[in-house]
Amino acid sequence: MRDVLPDIEKWRSHGERVALATVVSMAGSAPRRPGAKLAVSESGEIAGSVSGGCVEPAVISAAEEVIANGKPQMLEFGITEEENIEQIGLACGGTIHVFVERLDW
Questions:
Q1: N vs C: which end of the chain shows fewer Cβ within 10 Å?
Q2: Domain tally for the chain?
């Protein structure tokens, strides 16, 4: 949280709403461990990382929805045998769960 907190405080001081995405669990190989965070401001600025880039566009999109409607989301990313690498997932073969919430403090 320390890596994204200065940006969150700056955005909040400018009156922007903010969503915070947190890796809450992982299985297998994954680029980031539980606790990794990505913050998204109402104006579209980002800080931090939850995946090293492979699923972050989908997490950012979910964060924008959460900012707008206030409803938290639990996201899951991974590759199954039925899926292929072109779909959103982790190329490294693991699975992560990312919780996205709006910060209303």
A1: C
A2: 1
